[in-house]
Design goal:
The complex is a heterodimer of chains A (about 160) and B (about 375). In chain A, about 25% of the residues lie in helices and about 30% in strands. Chain A is an alpha/beta fold and about 160 residues long. Chain B is of the alpha+beta class. In chain B, strands 1-2-3-7 form a 4-stranded antiparallel sheet. In chain B, strands 4-5-6 form a 3-stranded antiparallel sheet. Classes of the chains: A alpha/beta (about 160), B alpha+beta (about 375).
């Protein structure tokens, strides 16, 4: 059973690599239910459409930013899952890409996965990542009078909350 | 870096719906003064009696949980990470602990898994009762069910206090397993309560779920089609009311769920009434789960000692909370503090359905649709 699941994940990865030999930079299958794909952001929309239409990952569970100031980059992680395909419904496919920390820009996934709408707005606000083509990229969670830099960046600290 | 001083007068709304073409429309702000289930503002554009479009303005209760989590240790994160949804604290806690245990290679003993499962299902009943009282009862003007559900919820809260020591914010599951074993008399009292509660559910059905007034107000209102529910990526009871059989307890079983028999209630209608009924049926399934768990609970240790350090690596854990799948990403860097915690919860994921559902509907249907989503603003804002 475990071997079957493992090969199921590897099949998915191989399909993706065959379709996008340049865009897919790396992959990691962790256990039976997690797949990590690192990709080049230039072909993101084609890759996402392929993942949705050919592999069957029909929704995004969320989008996470990870700030890495030492490497001068911001990672963006997309968590995709499937409701309609019962054979892969237990898999979480993580798509990871690295953006330049001084000017993080990536195409918006809203046209592929409408569920990305609020997740992209949050990542824009918290990490300053610009999602090109997002229909409504505005601040979401912070106060109206907040005019500082994106608060989730590692070098932004709030001493009044004990962050030093 | 710093927020500008708060203005003496309320700032002009920074989030407005772009000007419409129709001169007959009017923009109305609902909230953020606690319209019933927390601080959220819904900017509604109305035309006569109809809602044309809606723009949810969230963030009034944002407290930067993910930022705070980077400065606290793995264990001291638990109390504040369960605060976003205090009526569903066990699930928020459990989802956060699962990836940490995975990174630490700590396996919770079977008895601990059963106790966690019992606590989680009690929490699901309490959360659904809160929803039934406020989001279904008060929003539809049914004050009797508000009193009934809130009263019965307190009986569960008392037992939760007996088990964990706290009424709502338990911090019951640190990495390694639950903090306490079942107290003496707990099993007996919980069984008694479940017997009582099962009789009450019959009464709930009679006065609320089968009530012609409730059916008239909720049936056929706010329909979310199956394909739209999948496309929008909604989760939890909202998803299952649209006919998608997806529940993390079955898809990716955790705790004691693999050993227990239960059904996943689904409805094909996708309307507000279907969302009501999914939660009603889920309470019955929770009773079934707790009964089996109390019967099958093995003897042995409750918890194992877990290290304080989170090893380097990334792990994803998820549980089925009362508002849907809650997924945590935890990134460790060999220190006692996580270097990143990302929370993806049901309320924030279901937010995307709100502008979709609150469109071309009567203003009077808004509370029913909003209530049927069981949206918890604090959980969404984090």
């Amino acid at each position: 059973m475990a071997n079957q699941s493992q090969s199921r994940s590897e099949d998915l990865v191989n399909k993706l690599k065959a379709g996008f030999p340049d865009a897919v930079k790396g992959s990691k299958v962790e256990g039976t239910r997690r797949i990590l794909i690192t990709f080049d952001k230039d072909k993101f929309l084609e890759l996402a459409a392929f993942i949705r239409d050919e592999l069957g990952f029909d929704h995004l569970k969320g989008i996470a930013g990870i700030d890495e100031p030492t490497h001068k980059l911001i990672k963006v992680l997309y968590f995709a899952g499937s409701f309609s395909r019962t054979d892969i419904e237990d898999i979480i496919l993580v798509l990871e890409t690295e953006l330049d920390r001084s000017n993080p820009i990536i195409a918006s996934a809203v046209s592929i996965w409408p569920s990305a709408h609020f997740h992209e707005r949050e990542t824009f606000e918290m990490f300053g990542v610009k999602f090109e083509g997002h229909p409504d990229l505005r601040k979401l969670l912070t106060l109206d009078n907040w005019d500082g830099p994106p608060p989730m960046l590692k070098d932004i600290k709030f001493p009044e909350m004990g962050q030093r | 870096m710093t927020a500008t001083p708060a203005p003496t007068q309320a700032p002009p709304p920074s989030m407005t719906i772009s000007p419409g073409n129709e001169p007959s429309t009017l923009d109305v702000s609902v909230g953020p003064q606690h319209p019933g289930s927390g601080h959220v503002r819904l900017l509604m554009r109305v035309n006569g009696d109809y809602i044309v479009s809606i723009d949810p303005d969230v963030g009034y209760v944002h407290r930067g949980c993910e930022k705070i989590a980077e400065y606290r240790t793995a264990v001291s994160n638990i109390p504040h990470l369960e605060r976003p949804c205090i009526i569903d604290a066990i699930h928020l806690n459990w989802g956060y602990v699962l990836p940490i245990e995975e990174l630490q290679h700590v396996v919770v003993p079977p008895r601990g898994q059963y106790i966690s499962t019992i606590a989680a299902e009690m929490n699901r009943i309490m959360s659904h009762l809160y929803w039934l009282a406020i989001n279904a009862g008060v929003f539809s003007g049914h004050t009797t069910i508000f009193m009934y559900a809130f009263g019965d919820r307190d009986l569960f809260i008392e037992l939760a206090e007996m088990l964990t020591g706290a009424r709502l914010t338990y911090s019951f599951l640190p990495p390694g397993g639950p903090r306490r074993d079942l107290p003496a008399e707990f099993q007996k009292r919980l069984t008694q309560l479940l017997d009582y509660f099962e009789r009450r559910l019959v009464e709930y059905d009679r006065i609320f779920f089968s009530n012609p007034l409730v059916i008239a107000r909720a049936k056929g209102i706010g329909i979310l089609r199956k394909d739209e529910a999948i496309r929008l990526g909604v989760t939890g009871p909202v998803l299952r009311a649209s006919g998608v059989k997806y529940d993390v307890r079955k898809v990716e079983p955790y705790g004691a769920y693999p050993d227990l028999e239960f059904d996943i209630p689904t409805y094909d209608e996708g309307d507000s009434y279907a969302r009501f009924m999914v939660r009603f049926e889920e309470m019955k399934q929770s009773i079934r789960i707790i009964r089996q768990a109390l019967e099958k609970i093995p003897k042995g240790p409750v918890a194992r000692k877990a290290p304080l350090v989170i090893p380097e690596g990334e792990a994803i854990g998820r549980v089925e909370s009362s508002r849907g799948e809650i997924t945590y990403l935890v990134v460790g860097d060999n220190s006692d503090k996580p270097s990143r915690v990302k929370i993806m919860n049901g309320s924030f994921r279901n937010l995307v359905a709100m502008p979709y559902l609150l469109r071309n509907v009567h203003i009077a249907d808004m509370p029913i649709i909003y209530g049927s989503l069981d949206y918890w603003p604090v959980e969404a804002d984090r």
